[in-house]
Specification:
CATH topology: Trna Endonuclease, Chain: A, domain 1
InterPro entries: PDDEXK_10
Number of strands: 5
Strand order of the largest sheet: 1-2-3-4-5
Protein name: PD-(D/E)XK nuclease superfamily protein
Largest sheet: 5 strands, mixed
Helix content: 25-40%
Pfam families: PDDEXK_10
Organism: Candidatus Kentrum sp. SD
Structural class: alpha/beta
């Protein structure tokens, strides 16, 4: 994907993502004014999908900006995680080369 991309590191002092205060990391892409938030992992299970969604919502509240796309890239996405991702509106791809660039 071309555009501006960066890793966002923030501290969640209230513990909204993990249930306790901790550092949050997200991959952020800004392309043509669209905010795309990505997670790249070797494998994704159901809890990881929920955690990604909580991280996205944390970012949105902190920056007062809604993500246009949420994307998980992983060659191994558990079938239960895939169902959760579909319900949450998360795009899922096995490889970063498979992500459609719009």
């Amino acid at each position: 994907m071309s555009g501006h991309d960066a890793s966002e590191y923030a501290f969640d002092a209230e513990g909204t993502v993990f249930g306790r205060p901790d550092q949050i990391e997200l991959d952020i892409i800004i392309k043509n004014g669209s905010l795309i938030i990505c997670e790249l992992k070797s494998s994704v299970d159901k809890p990881a999908m929920y955690t990604f969604e909580r991280k996205v919502r944390f970012y949105e509240r902190r920056h007062r900006r809604q993500a246009n796309r949420m994307i998980v890239v992983s060659p191994m996405i558990d079938h239960r995680a895939r169902r959760v991702g579909e319900k949450l509106g998360i795009e899922m791809y096995p490889d970063s080369l498979d992500v459609p660039v719009t």
